[in-house]
Amino acid sequence: xxxxxxxxxxxxxxxxxxxxxxxxxxxxxxxxxxxxxxxxxxxxxxxxxxxxxxxxxxxxxxxxxxxxxxxxxxxxxxxxxxxxxxxxxxxxxxxxxxxxxxxxxxxxxxxxxxxxxxxxxxxxxxxxxxxxxxxxxxxxxxxxxxxxxxxxxxxxxxxxxxxxxxxxxxxxxxxxxxxxxxxxxxxxxxxxxxxxxxxxxxxxxxxxxxxxxxxxxxxxxxxxxxxxxxxxxxxxxxxxxxxxxxxxxxxxxxxxxxxxxxxxxxxxxxxxxxxxxxxxxxxxxxxxxxxxxxxxxxxxxxxxxxx
Length: 307
Hints:
Elements: H1 3-26, E1 35-44, H2 50-62, E2 66-68, E3 71-74, E4 77-81, E5 87-90, E6 94-95, H3 99-120, E7 124-125, H4 143-152, H5 159-165, E8 169-174, H6 178-192, H7 201-208, E9 215-216, H8 226-239, H9 257-264, E10 268-269, E11 271-274, E12 279-282, H10 293-305
Parallel strand pairs: 9-10
Antiparallel strand pairs: 1-5, 1-6, 1-7, 1-8, 2-3, 3-4, 4-5, 8-12, 11-12
């Protein structure tokens, strides 16, 4: 096969997948008024081991949380863990005017961190990163995380630190139309590189040396609106190495669109389309003390609402 034909096939796949992505996003049922959400990670103040995770899980189960697909849920409250033992709190969808529910969510996070420290002795910190965790135990050992960790031990230099020693706040905005994506994607990219919403220099140094094929930002054109944006996202992802095969996704002939959607979740770009919930994610803000978050949240929502 000539290089021209190969490139033509890749371009065709990119266009097809971009169309499917757009259709998938627009059929998720998001409607106005737009909703927002966040995922808030905290780092344990010391390196945890598997016994620590067992005690954390036992505490959550005793408090009425139930595990399903990696998420501990109790009513509308949801908690997950990251490979270094970071705890992650997932907010419900929030309208811009939902100040009461936002404050209740913040209070819940504060209460849970306090109870965890009392019951397990594990103290969680709102901070961007803690050095020295490259060789810390991998506490989530699913096939996905094991393959990711194995790759990160071989490529670049800082991937295991990213997995086990960093913490972020992911900010989400629901996409309800092509126009939403067209307006929000440039805004999110701008915020990702800003002092207010961007990564600290220390965390950025780790991120930039994690796995160059799946981090930073895709080269995206705005020429044809939402379709061009998604083409850039798809092109970036199909060039990235798929974890199971160790090959660029574009070189795996037996893979289809559903496989691509799973592969897309292994992209750690600064801005990412979350297909499951049809949201756009800003992934750069550093974790921080909880009392500093309401200001950041308000600024984020204001910027999106003023588009």
